[in-house]
Amino acid sequence: MQRERTLASRVIYDGIGLHAGKPVHMELAPAAPGTGIVFARSDMPAEKPVAATAANVTATLRATTIGAGTLKFFTIEHLMSALHVHGIDNCLVTLDAEEPPVVDGSARTFFRLIAQAGTAEQDAERHETVIDRVYRVDNGSHFVMAIPYDGLRVSFTSLNDHPLIGVQYYDIEVTPETYEKEIAPARTIAYEKEIAALQANGLGLGGSLETVIVYNDEGWMNPLNFPNELVRHKILDVLGDLRLAGIIRGHIIAVASGHALNTALAKRIAEERD
Fold it and tell me: Which position among 19, 78, 251, 259 bears the catalytic label?
């Protein structure tokens, strides 16, 4: 029997949010069995924390947003991805803004901070989200699906019309070791010509060459961690989004999927599991 896990100690990190561009103080704290992953505001202590579940997804434009009541939290997918692969069932995430720190646009710092804090087994049975049949969500030629598999595996194909990127494919058996080396360092990517429009709409205000990798029609504006960093980051995102349905045991297969499809799949899995 597997048991639920939480953090063994508190994690603290200060940074800025990717889209809001606001300074944010983040604390990750141990939580009691059965709590799940919940987000709270330290500057709004009277407000009830928001559970990071598929049912609470409110928006998926350029990031995954959860909300309930008067609170909302966006761009949670990188942190959720790191928590997912570490097998954290219960965690209280406390912020003094609406968005976790972007750090360098990847999940590497979150993953390492959680590893440093350690995990603690709890006196409660874990109920993994075991994929026991095929789940699939389509949007034209784009789709994401989950099929039975003894472990956690992701196979992702990204499609991009830009000749610099084109079609990228990556397949990985996800373990803490493979994730830390092959997925966690993959950063958010942006096309230079889109940045002004995003910022005009209040998005990407915390973006810079320190927090995002940017390409234009001449090439990459900053060095890559991987030649196929885009598809690896897509895997990072899908692992974060699907954590909204629980800790997954299965094989995720996706073609050009984004937050909208990812969270739709998480919602379908969660609803049918319940």
Answer: 259
